[in-house]
Specification:
The chain has a 6-stranded mixed β-sheet with strand order 6-7-8-3-9-10, with helices on both faces. A 4-stranded antiparallel β-sheet has the order 2-1-4-5, with helices on one face. The protein has a single domain, classed as P-loop containing nucleotide triphosphate hydrolases (Rossmann fold), CATH 3.40.50.300. It is globular. The two termini are 25 Å apart. Helix 3 packs across helix 4 and helix 3 packs parallel to helix 5 (139-152). It is of the alpha/beta class. The protein has 10 helices and 10 strands. The protein has helices at residues 40-47, 70-76, 93-105, 110-124, 139-152, 169-186, 197-203, 221-225, 228-235, 238-250, and strands at 2-11, 14-24, 29-33, 55-60, 63-64, 78-80, 157-161, 189-193, 206-211, 214-219. The chain binds adenosine-5'-triphosphate. Residues 11, 16, 34, 36-42 line the site of adenosine-5'-triphosphate. InterPro entries: AAA+_ATPase, ABC_AA/LPS_Transport, ABC_transporter-like_ATP-bd, BCA_ABC_TP_C, P-loop_NTPase. This is ABC transporter ATP-binding protein. It holds the Pfam family BCA_ABC_TP_C.
Length: 251
């Protein structure tokens, strides 16, 4: 479904992403992990059109999309969430999601946008009542709203950026289960960028690990969490390694 080859992003003289290649198959959940500043968000920004790659190719369903504007990429069927939710606070929950629905359709039909918004809100478990305000949503609610906005664009591929930041442990488990439900019930392929490796490992089919803009490991969660390179650069501590191994056992 997605084939990325030789992706590079330079900011001035600094290389944030260095010759990264990977594939994502239809129906898969790929986890993308790595320490702070390893290039995860920069890859998402290139996949979603926020900025163009310095070099490399991004083929989605066989067509080159590298360098296309964000609205064109959304119309092709790639939706994304953002690490820090920034909804329009003067709009209701429904209106925020409806607006995203307008973007995704390309047809600008209100009826279609409303239908997409209702389905997306029901999927993530937020009120479909059109007057429900954004104010009052906690961290978990705002993450759900972020996800509903992305779903309302009717994506075939969802780029989920750090869905678990700011959540407690029970909320993290629910958010991880939600991503799996989105894949299982809607058939949406997912790339999931996350810091919190333990929960991610329970849900993803494959993991790719970045460090300093380079891919250092890729494979099944069990293989990646015991890869010495990953333990050295990413896990860092025995406690983290134990947590990841325990999560893997629970799968
Ligand atoms: N617009 C930009 N201009 C200059 N440097 C940037 C820009 N965006 C990112 N970088 C740099 O590129 C590197 C990779 O950043 P990126 O945000 O992709 O990492 P990340 O793995 O997503 O980190 P985090 O987990 O902290 O979000 C960092 O060193 C960052 O400072």
């Amino acid at each position: 479904m997605l084939v990325v080859e030789g992706l590079v992003k330079r900011f001035g003289g600094f290389t944030a992403v260095s010759n990264v290649s990977f594939k994502v198959d239809q129906g898969e959940i790929l986890g993308l992990i790595g320490p702070n500043g390893s290039g995860k968000s920069t890859i998402f920004n290139m996949l979603s059109g926020t900025f163009p790659p310095s070099a490399g190719s991004i083929k989605f369903e066989g067509s080159e999309i590298a360098g296309l504007a964000p609205h064109r990429i959304i119309n092709r069927g790639i939706g994304r969430t953002f690490q820090i939710p920034r909804p329009f606070r003067r709009l209701t929950i429904f209106e925020n999601v409806e607006l995203a629905g307008f973007y995704g359709q390309g047809s600008h039909s209100r009826a279609k946008a409303d239908e997409a918004a209702e389905k997306a809100l029901a999927m993530v478990g937020l009120p479909t009542d059109r007057r429900a305000p954004v104010d009052g949503l906690g961290a978990a609610g705002l993450k759900k709203l972020e996800l509903a906005k992305a779903l309302a664009t009717s994506p075939k591929l969802l780029l989920a950026d750090e869905s678990l930041g700011g959540l407690d442990e029970a909320e993290m488990d629910q958010a991880a289960d939600m991503l799996r439900k989105i894949r299982d019930e809607l058939g949406i392929t997912i790339i999931w960028v996350e810091h919190i490796m333990g929960v991610l490992m329970r849900v993803v089919d494959r993991v790719m690990v970045l460090d300093h803009g380079e891919k250092i490991s890729e494979g099944l969660p069990s293989a990646v969490s015991s890869d010495p390179k990953v333990i050295e650069v990413y896990l860092g501590t025995d406690a983290d390694a134990t947590q990841a191994a325990a999560a893997e056992k629970r799968r």
